[in-house]
Amino acid sequence: xxxxxxxxxxxxxxxxxxxxxxxxxxxxxxxxxxxxxxxxxxxxxxxxxxxxxxxxxxxxxxxxxxxxxxxxxxxxxxxxxxxxxxxxxxxxxxxxxxxxxxxxxxxxxxxxxxxxxxxxxxxxxxxxxxxxxxxxxxxxxxxxxxxxxxxxxxxxxxxxxxxxxxxxxxxxxxxxxxxxxxxxxxxxxxxxxxxxxxxxxxxxxxxxxxxxxxxxxxxxxxxxxxxxxxxxxxxxxxxxxxxxxxxxxxxxxxxxxxxxxxxxxx
Length: 266
Prior knowledge:
The protein is of the alpha/beta class.
């Protein structure tokens, strides 16, 4: 039976060209591995650490990933790409060049008889008001037009620097699980469940692999990232499982084993 795959937060381009290229090659290995049994692929935000599309220019690099995604799309793989907080300026280039479906907000899809809510997760739930304000600024059409007037050498360099600064100041909290009551996306899932029955909530953004029980019928999965954990999820015969890409452990033994996802009972 065909499987549906979910992955997020690869942050290609970060923290430097050398480590990003190594991670990109692993991503392409993973794409090649799922080729035979995948019917859908959901890239749930922050594929890139930064992305901005000028009318006639896009950021350089990522040719292996884009080429492999285009190849799989040409062979019939249905690909869904979500914008994240680091690459929210994706526009029509990737949908037109690769043939994927672009999403800017969470979507509700019924797959293999299960109701899924899928999204990057940034700006959802209570708190994080500073980012919610910044997101409104960054998605303002006038400000995007003004940024596009900057020369790409300056504009992309500036934004890349700000992205690295933001990650260095906020990334430490991502490795800590503080309990369900402190997980904004867990609270968001509970709010949605008051209005709609969902079997699986699937988000990224958090950078920490999580599998938390919301009720006897509903589970929240956070996909982790491909900077530290190299985790992804697969839906097969209506069951969603969080997994680790073994290729990472085999090729880089010094990286150590990723932490086990938090139990549904945590």
